[in-house]
UniProtKB/TrEMBL annotation:
Protein species of origin: Pseudonocardia humida
Superkingdom classification of source: Bacteria
Cross-referenced Gene3D superfamilies: DD-peptidase/beta-lactamase superfamily
InterPro entries registered for this protein in UniProt: AmpC-like (IPR050491), Beta-lactam-related (IPR001466), Beta-lactam/transpept-like (IPR012338)
Beta-lactamase-related domain ranges (all copies): 22-340
Protein name in UniProt: Beta-lactamase family protein
Pfam families named among the record's database cross-references: Beta-lactamase
Amino acid sequence: MSITVTNQDELAARTGPDRPELRRTIREVVDSGFVGVQVRVHDERGGWVGSAGVAELGGTAKPPVDGHVRIGSNTKTFTATLVLQLVAEGKIGLDSPADDYLPEFGLDRSITVRMLLQHTSGVFNFTGEYYDDGTVVPGIPWQGQEWVDNRFTTYRPEELVRLALSKPARFEPGTDWSYSNTNYVLARLLIEKVTGHSLAEEMQRLILGPLGLSGTVVPDTQPEIPEPHTHAYYRYDDADQQKTVDVTRQNPSWISSGGDMISTTQDLHTFISALMGGTLLPAPLLAEMCTPHPKAGYGLGVFVQDTACGGTVITHNGGIAGHAALMYSTPDGSKTLTASLNYVDDAAMSLAGAFQKAMQRLVEEVFCGGQAGSTDEATEPAQPTG
């Protein structure tokens, strides 16, 4: 695959030297099975941006370096930051029972706001629970032809929460760790309850507006994605035949604040750099955010990971039906890697292995200078948001 070079690429390249190792790495990512990839790096050598592959199956145009993408579970980092900002404003108690703010759901009184943000509440995951013995307890449909046929259906966040609460909890609150999208839909409802405003309004007030993130959208039920963007695809079986459909347009309310936001790699860089640099949160709350749970390395809306070369990165990633985004930063925000991918998704999540290898390869190249080894990836289980 050739690498796109646009005016924006040239502008970025002038802030630092050419990065043939990055061009080679993103070409390898595409060769591993992805339709397209766009990568942005900011470090001591300046800024660099490039893309490989194509924006659309059957097309020749490269992924736009300023393209919009559905960022999946990176939404959780934005949402957690917003909750912590409201903690800083005195509107939410981090260790208060979530039931204090959302009494209508009858939540276990021992579930705190912190537990929601750290995935230690034990609340059932509305997209389904996957147990170590292979047992699967389904939630809402998010795979196969059923999802494709109903991808413009509207779900309200209260509906997703009530579905989850109708199922047995995975464990007693605070006794274990398990990734659950329900936690972050509860966080959304908590934000809206204490502020009296929509999540989108509060996100604009506290994060998007102050940082000038004009390419970032909280879509709620809207199926559109702003131009320019790459196309996302989903493959499923129909009468023993495989069909591939363009699912770029979809109603993301089925995942809600578990992974519905849209952004760009530029905005993700600006956000994670500002967050880690202390612009958005007071130092004590930022430290709380980046204190990992021992089981999974998950803080409050971020993973805290060791690199192959002995450093640490603060990260989240997310994938949602053919779109994915990566977001990595040093703990001080001085070095960042953000990326977007478009691909053909399927119920078997056949690109999951390639996705993990792509992340590992990019992280090693950016944060370890290509040093061989493997990052200590604390990956999320097989979930629709990566």
